[in-house]
Write a sequence for this structure.
């Protein structure tokens, strides 16, 4: 198994009454932002990440959002660069760079290659479409989000793997000369993982590329439906996916006592961002961003015809294990159920959020690394939950000769 | 023929363009707002009393086939110009409502010889020297469209007390078309003002005094850039064709 630590890096140092209707992304004025508190926040997170490596975490998961106090990572490559130099062993897992926001994917390819080399080949380069609100925050056309995502991905992989110089004449990107003098240390290229919540199209796209899909805090049932969609698409391109193709992000707060753990875990409800369902329905779904098949439901939410999908109550989320909190033993028992039900080879534990103190975050990380994760590794071994770094599957379908042969053989048999 | 107009489909650039047409007399082509074509209104009826009134639905709007290649307002203008060729009409009065005014202005810069008159009604297309064009992407569809009417009763007359889900879906798809063609800069061109200096066709720049979508400055900018333009102010909002249908039709044919 590959076990990661994650935090959104939320900024809670503002007057909560300043945010109208609880919506804190996009238009919540940055006049409420305190850069001194921001400096403290970043440096505390660095101390926590270093502890995570010390106590045995396999990977540190990073992400990126814009105009949003719920996530202070405005550029995940900055944190990845810091960790490339400040850590020695952990994988640096970006989930991920929002590709449509890039006007120059070649520059992104160079940044990622530098991170991979500086870290000694520890980069996992996840890619995302970015949230709907992100398109507004960065002025990127939501109607071309998926086109830009796919083309930027193709260009980055090509820049990493095809000897330059060559020319790129795409729909959204045109480059006279593609010939970056910074290439990834990992060959043929760093592993690419795709995180997501809702988009069926993205699940299918990831499966067809043989990229692991990381389900972000979905319910057990929703996660199983995602695997079914993934498996069907994978079978079409000639391979049978297993745990190495499946990742799961889950909120898990561990403390020395149940009471303390529950008190801190309730801070997961503080975050007024995309995952708790408090995102502004209009800003989250700019026209053209979402799949047309969701248009009816989305316009009804946007225009007040049906209630927006709100997060379930804390008690409900504890009950259905979308939030796990307790002592190490209590958490391990619940996580066993999660692993048995969803069978991921990649598990990200989202430990701390909201106003949890630095001291409590440090203790949580220590307990995760020294008590919870060793037990999870044993359970993973018992359940055969190999991650991508255990079984070393091809980095993508392009390098999966067996899958290509199966598809060719099936085509020949059907006379195509 | 229904209610004084006919419906037809004309293929332009591989796209089927739906066209409503009614009345007799000199031809008037009306290009609708970015929120869509609500059909043959009292305004079109008023115009068709003395004019051959032509109302196309821009391709991609209101459920019609879109060209994935069509990615700028200038592309739309080219399609509309080709539509005029296909219709075989000359000496046309070209009327653009809001976003349609932007399309009409682009058409005039490409070929003004076929136009007898240009009428820009609450047109976007120019960066306001004072104020900003309203950003519909921050508002729910129904809220934005309501803001286009000075009199809420006119909104209700058109869309009912409760807007249908089908209409909301159409507004969202139309908003997507707006993003596809006019996202950045939003609803204006940085090159159009330079090209307008050579447009000499007689122009009426009509502004609704209660328009909350387009700042008043834009109408004045059009008047100063165009060679032969007069400013007409009518009481009403952005959708003047609903707030003041008779007055607008009279101003156009005058």
């Amino acid at each position: 198994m590959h076990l990661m630590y994650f935090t959104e890096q939320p900024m809670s140092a503002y007057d909560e009454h300043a945010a109208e209707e609880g919506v804190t992304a996009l238009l919540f004025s940055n006049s409420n932002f305190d850069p001194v508190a921001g400096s403290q926040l970043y440096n505390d997170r660095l101390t926590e990440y270093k502890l995570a490596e010390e106590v045995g975490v396999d990977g540190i998961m990073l992400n990126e959002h814009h105009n949003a106090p719920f996530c202070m990572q405005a550029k995940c490559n900055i944190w990845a660069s810091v960790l490339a130099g400040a850590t020695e062993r952990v994988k640096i897992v970006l989930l991920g760079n929002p590709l449509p926001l890039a006007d120059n994917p070649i520059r992104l390819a160079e940044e990622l290659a530098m991170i991979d080399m500086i870290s000694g080949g520890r980069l996992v380069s996840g890619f995302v479409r970015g949230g709907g609100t992100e398109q507004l925050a960065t002025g990127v056309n939501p109607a071309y989000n998926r086109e830009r995502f796919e083309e930027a991905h193709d260009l980055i992989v090509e820049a990493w793997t095809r000897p330059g110089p060559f020319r790129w004449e795409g729909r959204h990107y045109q480059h006279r000369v593609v010939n970056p003098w910074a290439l990834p240390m990992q060959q043929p290229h760093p592993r690419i993982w795709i995180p997501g919540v809702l988009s069926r199209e993205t699940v299918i796209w990831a499966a067809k590329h043989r990229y692991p899909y990381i389900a972000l805090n979905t319910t057990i049932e929703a996660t199983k439906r995602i695997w079914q969609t993934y498996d069907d698409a994978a079978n079409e391109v000639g391979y049978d996916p297993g745990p190495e193709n499946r990742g799961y992000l889950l909120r898990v707060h561990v403390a020395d006592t149940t009471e303390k753990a529950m008190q801190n875990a309730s801070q997961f409800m503080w975050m007024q961002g995309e995952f708790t369902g408090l995102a502004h329905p209009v800003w989250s779904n700019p026209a053209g961003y979402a799949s047309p098949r969701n248009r009816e439901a989305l316009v009804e939410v946007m225009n007040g015809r049906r209630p927006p999908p709100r997060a379930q109550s804390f008690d409900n989320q504890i009950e259905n294990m979308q939030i796990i909190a307790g002592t190490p033993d209590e958490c391990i028992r619940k996580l066993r159920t999660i692993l048995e039900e969803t069978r991921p080879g990649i598990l990200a534990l989202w430990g701390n959020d909201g106003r949890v103190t630095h001291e409590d975050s440090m203790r949580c990380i220590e307990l995760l690394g020294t008590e919870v994760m060793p037990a999870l590794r044993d359970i993973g071994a018992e359940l055969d939950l190999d991650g991508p770094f255990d079984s070393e599957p091809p980095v993508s379908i392009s390098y999966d000769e067996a899958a290509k042969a199966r598809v060719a053989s099936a085509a020949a048999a059907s006379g195509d | 023929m229904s209610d004084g107009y006919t419906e037809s489909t004309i293929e332009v650039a591989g796209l089927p363009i739906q066209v409503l047409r009614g009345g007799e007399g000199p031809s008037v082509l009306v290009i609708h707002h970015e929120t869509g074509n609500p059909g043959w209104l009292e305004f079109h009826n008023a115009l068709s009393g003395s004019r051959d009134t032509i109302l196309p639905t821009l391709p991609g709007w209101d459920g019609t086939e879109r060209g994935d290649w069509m990615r700028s307002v200038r592309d739309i203008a080219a399609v509309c110009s080709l539509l005029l060729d296909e219709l075989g009409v000359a000496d046309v009065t070209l009327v653009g409502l809001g976003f349609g005014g932007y399309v009409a202005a682009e058409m005039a810069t490409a070929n003004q010889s076929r136009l007898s008159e240009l009428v820009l009604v609450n047109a976007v297309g120019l960066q306001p020297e004072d104020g900003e064009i309203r950003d519909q992407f921050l508002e729910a569809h129904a809220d934005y469209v309501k803001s286009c009417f000075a009199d809420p009763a006119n909104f209700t007359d058109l869309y009912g007390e409760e807007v249908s889900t089908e209409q909301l879906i159409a507004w969202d798809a139309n908003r997507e078309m707006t993003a596809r063609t006019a996202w950045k800069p939003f609803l204006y061109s940085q090159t159009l003002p330079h090209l307008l200096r050579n447009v000499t066709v007689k122009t009426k720049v009509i502004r609704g005094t209660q328009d909350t979508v387009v700042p008043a400055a834009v109408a004045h900018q059009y008047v100063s850039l165009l060679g032969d333009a007069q400013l007409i102010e009518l009481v009403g909002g952005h959708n003047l064709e609903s707030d003041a249908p008779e007055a607008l039709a009279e101003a156009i044919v005058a």
The mean pLDDT of chain B is 97. Residues 7 and 225 of chain B are 36 Å apart (CA to CA). Chain B touches chain A through 21 residues (CB under 8 Å). Chain B is about 35% helix and 20% strand.
